[in-house]
Design a protein that fits this description.
single chain; mainly beta; four-stranded parallel sheet; 1 helix; 17 strands; about 5% helix
């Protein structure tokens, strides 16, 4: 329940970072006030989150390798799952890219990208409010390295528009959104059933 305001950064190679809320009946909120109601269960992410794999060079080209260093090739999972608004602040990077290693023979072993999920709450409830996943001006990464596969990206918001100029309460995904980040799979869901 409550709210989540993430102001710092989190780095967990090939780990899982999950931020989630559940709406609660809280007497501190005035359910007749849409703005106040939307605060209950809202998530704001103002810091970077990385579950990307690491890069290890055991080739010895740059000096004696540290063979005790763990090899973490694959990217992990990042989930921001709000029961209200999910706001990722502009300038934030969510990175679930794969890593890789160079072995002692000089062969490169790449890892696969992980999964990123950003979801707002479904419309309706006590106030009939439509909730938004706000992702304008952020960077999302799920690259695979070498033979590794790209990760997956899932976005769920009230109404979603691909290309053009978005209307109010609509999350705009420009065409360029699908041309970067290295993702191999996309899952785009309009919680309000309107996607264009």
């Amino acid at each position: 329940g409550g709210q989540i305001n993430m102001l710092g950064s989190i780095t967990v190679p090939d780990g899982s970072v999950s931020l989630s809320t559940v709406q609660t009946v809280n007497p501190l909120y005035n359910f007749g006030n849409t703005t106040s109601y939307k605060l209950d269960g809202a998530i704001t992410v103002a810091g970077n989150i990385s579950t990307r794999g690491t890069w290890v060079n055991d080739s010895g080209v740059f000096g004696a390798p540290d063979l005790t260093q763990p090899i973490i090739k694959n990217g992990g999972n990042i989930s921001v799952n709000s029961n209200s608004d999910a706001v990722i602040s502009a300038g934030v990077t969510l990175d679930a890219s794969g890593g890789g290693c160079v072995d002692q023979a000089g062969n490169i072993h790449g890892g696969s990208g992980g999964n990123i999920v950003i979801a707002s709450g479904k419309p309706g409830g006590t106030s009939g409010t439509n909730y938004q996943a706000t992702i304008d001006g952020i960077t999302l990464k799920g690259y695979g390295v070498q033979n590794g596969k790209g990760g997956s990206l899932s976005i769920s918001s009230n109404d979603i528009q691909i290309g053009g100029a978005a209307a109010n309460d609509t999350q705009l995904l420009p065409a360029s959104f699908f041309q970067g980040g290295g993702f191999a799979n996309y899952n785009i869901t309009a919680q309000g059933n309107n996607i264009s």
